[in-house]
Specification:
The chain is α+β, with helices and mostly antiparallel strands. The protein contains four helices and six strands; from the N terminus they run E-E-E-E-E-E-H-H-H-H.
Length: 130
């Protein structure tokens, strides 16, 4: 278990993760199976990180779809539910904070402040639930 004064991550099973999964790194061929490309940042790590990153990119503004997709993905990780549930919102909060910061500094994105606020709220909730 990795701890610091306000956060505790459950370090359980690691897997090969993409570490840069987003809609631009997924190709859909004729079949219904996606193909992941651009494995340049891949590493052994917590699958929660990839799940949070993917859901952030495809459903950050659609909470209902977000929850349905999260539940569906979680069902594929039979023996890792506890680890993923404990760590998922930490990684998700980082996505919101990072993309909000990038939106402020690079693109003057009008949603940047909202993204930072969501990230801050998720991180505070994660810390309070530990």
């Amino acid at each position: 278990m990795l701890t610091c004064p306000r956060f505790t991550l459950l370090l359980g099973k690691f897997a090969l993760i993409h570490a840069d999964i987003n809609q631009f790194n997924i190709i859909w061929k004729d079949s219904s199976y996606p193909i992941l490309i651009d494995w340049g940042y891949s590493e052994f790590g917590d699958p929660s990180r990839d799940i949070a990153n993917l859901l952030f990119h495809i459903h950050k503004d659609e909470r209902d779809e977000f929850e349905k997709t999260y539940t569906s993905i979680l069902s594929a990780y039979d023996d890792m539910h506890e680890q993923i549930n404990k760590n998922f919102y930490f990684y998700l909060s980082l996505r919101y904070l990072i993309y909000g910061r990038v939106g402020l500094t690079r693109a003057s994105n009008p949603n940047a402040i909202k993204m930072i606020e969501i990230g801050h709220d998720l991180l505070r909730e994660f810390a309070e639930n530990r």
